[in-house]
Task: structure prediction
Amino acid sequence: MGSLSREILLVHKDDYVRVRAVPTKHTSTYIFCHAKGQKAADWISIVEPLRNLGIADHIAFVFPYLDSRPTDRSNLQALPEAATLVQKLVTEEIGFGVKADRIAVGGDEDGFETALLAVLNSDTKIAGLIGLTGGLRLGNKLRVFRKSGNAETPVFVIERSQEHRVVGGKKLSETIGQPIGGWIVCNGAAETKVETLLSDQGIETMSSFLRKNLPVEMS
Result:
């Protein structure tokens, strides 16, 4: 995805790094959770290609600092604290003046499951979720945390590999009870290297999600 050639304004806080929206244009926020083995700052590299497409100048990107140590993904033990942080960040964005329906949440692998737990277990209705996964393993366990607030919030999935798929779009909808806004298959397994975190196809899919759910507001 290349090096950052446009000015990227970063704000470092105790529990997240923030890429500010272009000054005077901020109307929306996208909170993205990294996977185990990754760092929050790894995902800053997605901002420039999204902005180069002309659809993200108004969006602030927030990357929370989550536990990056490998854990057993078959249980929920590591997720509640991380999900609570995501809910806190959503609340903070609303406090900053961002409307709840102008906030999206997403993540990669374990981070996607964190995002799902945070949103499903919240009464604050947001714009949508988008995640990358090679196999979502906690769908049926996450269902028990669902509240009514985001019952109709769409989930968009970028599937990295068919051969590792645990639940497809239809089954995911059935297991967690959420409407699936889109299910796109991209090549490539999960990586920790910055340049391979998201393919060009993945960037285009994410940009389509942002265009639909966090569109530029016309004055």
Summary: Confidence is low (pLDDT under 50) at residues 1-5, 188-195. The first strand starts at residue 10 and ends at 12.
